[in-house]
Amino acid sequence: MAQCCASGNPFISDAEQPALQSRVLTAALTYRYSHSEQFYHDDSPYHDLNFSQTANVNYTELQLAYGVTKWLTVMGDLGYFFNKTLHTEGQDPMRGYGLGDAALYLKFNLYSNAKARFTISPSIGMKFPVGVFDQEVDNVKLPISVQPSSGSFKYLANVFISKGIAKKMALAGFVSYEYAQLIESENFYYKYGQQWIGALYFNYRIIKSLSLDLQLRNEYRAKAKRENQEIVESSGYDVVYFTPQLTYAFKHDWYLSAFGDIPIYKYYNGIQMSFGYALSLRLTRKIDFLTIRARRQANKQSE
Amino acid sequence: MNRIIVLLIISVAVLLSCTKEKTEKGAGDIQIHSLSCTLNPIEAWDTTLITVEATGSDLQYGWEANHGDFKGSGKTIKYAAGECCVGLNTITCRVFNGTGEVSDTIMIRVTTYYHPK
Predict the structure, then answer these.
(1) Which of A161, A209, A214, A221 could form a disulfide with A202 if both were Cys (CB 3.0 to 4.6 A apart)?
(2) Which pLDDT belongs to residue B16?
């Protein structure tokens, strides 16, 4: 499956966050547009095809996270595709849309030293194929590449490490592993390759309410398998992205982030349509219930 | 509060682990006589025309491939598959009307487009 329309929700490359403090809720809504059009063979563009294809995806994701205790954060997200469209020259486009996958994570505050501004937050999670995987147009099933859901349960483990290095600067690292469960039905047998993501973040607070994140991220996916353990040679990739991000903090704990994914190195097994670019906007609201309660108590006492 | 969250997580996991199985319906007055294609095997991104011949009243046709995609709809359809779908692919045709549904499959081999020099 070409990565242009990789199955399941895209990895939202917003700078990862450590586990939340107890009784803190964050709600984030992300919109992402991505575009792809160039075929790749290994690490070079492949021009020997006698047709052209482009793909674009309009996607939104709702993410909720809650600090249950000071050491445990529960996080969930749900994706929705407004469209996942593949245009082939001279043909009607193929368009899938609808609910994608849902995910649930448990994030742990393994180590946190406020003085040293150092945190280690491992997490485990699971993705559920709750969305559409059998979309049809005129009784004709769309290909998997434009189906909104991946159709597969996936298991994830990752760790986020962050360290403040100066008053306004921080460095962070993120490593993630994803294992996809075999999809097996009467006429369908498919197993996505395992995925590794490694990212390095540099965070700089430009002014009090504006911060800049520069991210270098490597996404690797192994080849998929189909019937009889046959390896899908034109699947799997190794892509390095540069992701700049600006975040503005408004009053009352509202945050607005804008970021883009720009591939700086691409390697695709076989022949696949390669990822072009993605632009994202994220609106986040943070609610600290402990602070709210403390404020209310203080108000009562002053009355 | 913590217990409620843990219970909620377990409930969601259990609910979502249930999967639906698709079963074929009775034939009614429908009969499929043949399911054939013009070209087999095909190279990646080439097309083959698949046609189903069936009898019955007010027939409708549904198509599904485990790998690859279709152009068009109805009793004859164009099938193609890219490099992602090299291998022996199963195409399922459903013929249905108000009285029932019958399905049949055809296997089409897709070979690689890429021939290194």
Answers:
(1) A214
(2) 43
Inter-chain touch B83–A233, beta carbons under 8 Å: yes
The count of CB pairs under 8 A between chains A and B is: 93
- Six token digits for residue A282: 């994220």
For residues A296 and A289, the answer to whether their CB atoms sit within 8 Å is no
The enclosing H or E element of A294 equals helix A289-302
Supply A126's token pair: 């699971």
CB atoms A187 and B92 under 8 Å: yes
Q: Are B62 and A140 a contacting pair at CB < 8 A?
A: yes
Report residue A60 as tokens. Answer: 């939104």
Q: Among A55-69, A96-110, B7-21, B54-68, which is the least confidently predicted range? A: B7-21
Q: Is the Cβ of B82 closer than 8 Å to some Cβ of chain A?
A: yes
Q: Is A130 on the interface with B (CB under 8 A)?
A: yes
Predicted ipTM of the assembly: 0.83
Q: What is the per-residue pLDDT across B77-89, written as a single tens digit (0 to 9) for each? A: 999 999 999 999 9
pTM greater than 0.80 (yes/no): yes
**Structure confidence by residue, pLDDT tens digits, A128-179:** 999 989 899 999 999 988 999 999 999 999 999 999 998 899 999 999 999 9
Who among B22, B70, B112 is closest to A186 (CB)? B22
> Which of these, B8, B1, B2, B14, lies nearest to A76 by C-alpha position?
B8
For residue A253, how far is the Cα from the chain centroid? 23
Q: Are A297 and A262 in contact (CB under 8 A)?
A: no
Minimum Cα–Cα distance from A187: chain B residue: B66
Of B12, B45, B73, nearest to A140 by CB-CB distance is B73
Q: Please tell me if residue B46 touches chain A, with a CB cutoff of 8 Å.
A: no
Banded pLDDT at B10 (limits 50, 70, 90): low
- Residue A155: which of A187, A117, A181 has the closest Cα? A181
Say whether residue B35 is in contact with chain A using an 8 A CB cutoff. no
Low-confidence ranges of chain A (pLDDT < 50): 1-4
Cα separation of A101 and A86, whole Å? 20
Show residues of chain B in contact with A78, CB under 8 Å: none
Sheet holding A230-232, edge to edge: A183-185, A188-191, A224-226, A230-232
